[in-house]
Amino acid sequence: MKLKFLSVFVVLFVNTAIAQITAIPDPAFEQALIDLGIDSDGVVNGQVLTADIEHIIELDFENVLSYAWIADLTGIQGFVNLEVLNLNGEFAGVDIFENQANIFTDNINLRELSITNPCGDCATSFIISLNLSGLPNLELIDLQNVQIQTLKLNNTDFNLSNLTINLEHEGFPGNDFTQQICIEVNDPQAATNNQPPYNTWNIIYNEFTTSIGFGENCTLSIANYENFNSISVYPNPVKDVLWIENPNQIQLKSVNVFTMQGKLVKTFADVKDNLSLSELKSGLYFVKINDSTSFKIVKQ
Predict the structure, then answer these.
(1) pLDDT of the residue at 77
(2) Rounded CA separation 292/230 (Å)
(3) pLDDT tens-place string over residues 208-249
(4) Closest Cα to residue 150, out of 70, 252, 228?
(5) For residue 221, what is the DSSP state?
(6) Which residues contact 291 (CB under 8 A, 6 or more apart)?
(7) How far, CA to CA in Å, does 250 sit from each of 49, 148, 178, 277?
(8) Last residue of a domain, one of 222, 243, 273
(9) Residues 249 and 150 placed together within one structural domain of the fold
(10) Range of 39's domain?
């Protein structure tokens, strides 16, 4: 009987211990938490104590993200009381693709979300689709110098009001950058006509945003969505040759390679299926294909 009781106790203890851990798979994300004194064990080990993060109201990476790119925000869901999230950083940023479009679903107290870069020509963040539709307290969405296609803000349970959305962009890189942005809302016609509650919204943009539209299903309204997702590059990191996977056989008229500071270092025309990058120095680069699709790569 004592042995059985001990076994049950051990199982309960182990389960409890596991429940107190939140996974943080991205080392840049965890290092930022360590630098802020939030991750109490101080070691990049892919996890953080849930007790370290569940009480946090404001998370500001402004002074700890420098040349560190976060590609996976898994773990942000554990910040259940988070109200203000600032993911800005000098030459740093965040990529949020389709598999993480719903990454903020559990942060229902979020009021302010800021994912920006100080310089659109030196770096940019890429977000295919960002779903903030379940966040009733939103007041500010700051996406300066972010390349985004879809922003989801529709929820039949509530209407957002007095919302500021900053979509300004400096261009990436140079002056040929444009983007089309679709915002999902409860009533696209009312939003288009600037009727309540959308007349209380403040949407900020500039000449690099060719159009901002409203819809019930933005994915279907973006003409280049399929093409944007069909092209991929590998391996990454790359040593000598970067291969381009192009299943839809899109014509690759031009490929340009830029440094983090926006300096053009290589140009290719009429590309087939690979790029020779052997002469580039080790570091972080952006590969821009057909002036529309961009990838961040690490050159070894």
Answers:
(1) 95
(2) 13
(3) 665 788 888 876 444 444 444 467 788 888 889 999 888 777
(4) 228
(5) G
(6) 176, 177, 254
(7) 46, 21, 20, 22
(8) 222
(9) no
(10) 26-222
Nearest Cα to Cα of residue 29 among 52, 62, 61: 61
pLDDT of residue 16: 44
Residue with tokens 């052997």: 278
Q: Which residues pair with 164 in a beta bridge?
A: 140, 202
Is residue 68 domain-shared with residue 130, that is, in the same domain? Answer: yes
DSSP string of 43-97?
A: S-SSEEEHHHHTT--EEE-TTT-BS-EE---TTGGG-TT--EEE---BT-EE-B-
Distance CA 92, CA 6 (A): 50
Burial state string for 69-105 with b = 16 or more CB within 10 A and e = fewer than 16:
bbbbbbbbbbbeebbbbbbbbebbbbbbeeebbbbbe
Amino acid at 214: F
CATH no. for residue 282?
2.60.40
Residue type, 267: T
Look at phi and psi of residue 76 and say left if phi exceeds 0, alpha if psi is from -120 to 50, else beta.
alpha
User: In the predicted model, is pLDDT for residue 117 greater than 60?
Assistant: yes
**Distance between CA atoms of residues 202 and 168, nearest Å:** 12
Q: Look up the pTM and report it.
A: 0.69
Residue range 143-156, pLDDT digits in tens: 988 878 889 999 99
